[in-house]
Design goal:
binds magnesium ion, Rossmann fold, binds adenosine-5'-diphosphate, four-stranded mixed sheet, alpha/beta
Length: about 475
């Protein structure tokens, strides 16, 4: 007989089962995702229910959902399919208000689709039961190639700054005229987390927008390598080659350094490259270093990589970092972050955009989960916890900003010629702390503090030292500001 008690018991058993399943998934994910990243992105996820093949995960904010979709979806889907069922799918829920949950579907499917194409002769071989390439979506004929492009990595949300201006505009030119510019191959390089993958997708998406008839394929070199190895094991390397040579108009290979020291896969890459290049097809490559610094590659492969245009992405300056955070807030829609917190994050996280993004999202998530305000103190706590803080750099600009905040004056006022008491004090203390806390020369400090010469900077430093000795309150103010800067 069905009773309330029984219903309750059943619900509880279901809940416990779900909890157990989810901790199993987390245990697997913990093994494959770097520890810090796992802590930021997975420790706050909760499995809410499993219904009609959908696992519902509760995420702290929309941003979490977007980030997970962009970075970990393959691992996540693979894991839930392994633990729950091969047909398991994913949905996310965010708390909009206490009683109100918003559900988003996983968009782990190609949004930027390629048109179906007629298969090359060999692929129409009647003896072949299954089409040999993993990018061919089964059951669809004629053949359609999954572009693997993620539409949330586009040009609109790729913030421009002097760090990426050249690469961004060259990428844009490539998308206008794929295969027809001198930028072929177009190679983007930088250290991790500076936007290579984002820009590569953006070029692919823009190409599809302007030339929908072109078949674009994004593939990580790691995936390319795995496909190649599989083709060797299954004696289908010819099909593998044919697929790339016959079907693709724009080939994007991400993180080519994965092919370092792998002569077999370099050989097929070389053949594919030559074929596509000579047929006027576009090749876009990303790498963690410039071709001149690459090792573990055959000379002929390296020389191909140097053929077209190599463009570097650098760490954005502070203003671009602020713009990136503001853009994320604008796109996320939900977060309301005080300017001083945005500035604090932008000044403190100078290692990579990925870390900046991680710190930003953690601040929002912590404030949401603990129902507290987004403050500088919270941001400081998170930056100290998650960002490799020993690489935090104190810049003259950051010192100036903190001093201006303390005196409640604007940067323009401090850099002006005003002789007003507070403004002069702020100017002097900025120069004094820049000398004490940074490795900049007096000339460099003077240049950034309103184009003063080195004698003026020296005079300012001496005057702060004297005032500290004679005026207790003044000394306390200087110490307070210094503490704020270095904490
Ligand atoms: P990489 O491939 O160089 O390791 P990614 O392309 O994965 O770096 O970028 C890391 C994160 O930083 C991504 O979430 C990306 O969207 C973001 N990002 C990078 N550059 C920019 C930019 N110019 N504007 C906005 N977001 C950016
Ligand atoms: Mg990348």
């Amino acid at each position: 007989m069905r009773t309330e008690k029984n219903d309750f018991k059943m619900q509880n058993t279901e809940k416990n089962k779900l909890k157990k399943i989810w901790s199993e998934c987390l245990a697997i994910l913990k093994d494959i995702i770097p520890e810090d990243e796992f802590r930021i992105w997975f420790s706050d996820l909760v499995a809410v229910k499993y219904e009609d093949d959908f696992l519902y995960l509760s995420v702290p904010s929309n941003y979490y959902y977007e980030y997970i979709e962009a970075h970990y979806i393959d691992e996540l889907i693979r894991t839930i399919r392994r633990v729950i069922s091969p047909s398991a799918k994913l949905r996310y829920m965010t708390k909009v208000t206490e009683s109100n949950m918003m559900t988003m579907s996983s968009v782990n499917h190609p949004i930027v689709e390629n048109y179906p194409q007629n298969a090359p002769v060999i692929l129409n071989n009647p003896d072949m039961k299954e089409l040999p390439n993993p990018f061919i979506i089964p059951g669809i004929k004629p053949i359609k190639v999954d572009s693997q492009l993620k539409d949330n990595y586009n040009f609109d949300n790729f913030v421009e700054g002097s760090c990426n201006k050249f690469a961004r505009s060259a990428g844009y030119a490539v998308a206008q005229n794929p295969g027809k510019t001198a930028f072929n191959p177009f190679l983007i390089y930088s250290s991790v987390g500076l936007g290579k993958t984002h820009l590569a997708h953006a070029i692919g998406i823009e190409t599809k927008r302007l030339h929908p008839e072109k078949t674009v394929l994004y593939i990580s070199a790691d995936q390319f390598l795995r496909q190649y190895v599989k083709s060797v094991q299954e004696h289908t390397t010819n099909d593998f080659l044919q697929f790339y040579q016959m079907m693709i108009d724009v080939l994007i290979i991400d993180d080519i350094q994965f092919l370092e020291g792998k002569p077999g896969s370099q050989e097929v890459f070389f053949q594919i490259f030559n074929w596509l290049h000579s047929s006027g097809k576009q090749i876009i490559i990303t790498s963690d270093k410039a071709p001149v610094d690459m090792s573990g590659f055959e000379e002929r492969v390296l020389s191909r990589l140097k053929w077209g245009l190599n463009a570097e992405l650098q760490m954005p300056d502070v203003q671009t970092r602020i713009n990136i955070i503001k853009k994320k807030i604008e796109d996320d829609g939900a977060a309301c972050m005080p300017d001083e917190v945005i500035e604090y994050l932008a000044y403190s996280v100078n290692t990579s955009i990925r870390e900046l993004e991680g710190a930003f999202v953690s601040v929002i998530a912590h404030a949401t989960l603990s129902k507290c305000d987004i403050t500088i103190d919270l941001a400081r706590e998170i930056v100290d916890k998650f960002v490799k803080s020993n690489t935090r750099e104190i810049t003259i600009e950051y010192i100036q900003k903190m001093v201006c905040n303390y005196f409640n004056i604007s940067m323009e006022q401090m850099l002006s010629r005003s002789r007003k008491g507070d403004i002069v004090a702020a100017r002097h203390i900025s120069m004094y702390l820049s000398r004490k806390l940074t490795k900049n020369s007096l000339v460099a400090i003077g240049e950034k503090c309103g184009k003063k010469d080195h004698a003026t900077v020296l005079h300012a430093c001496k005057s702060v030292e004297t005032s500290c000795q004679t005026n207790k309150n003044y000394r306390r103010s200087v110490e307070d500001i210094e503490k704020k800067i270095i904490s």
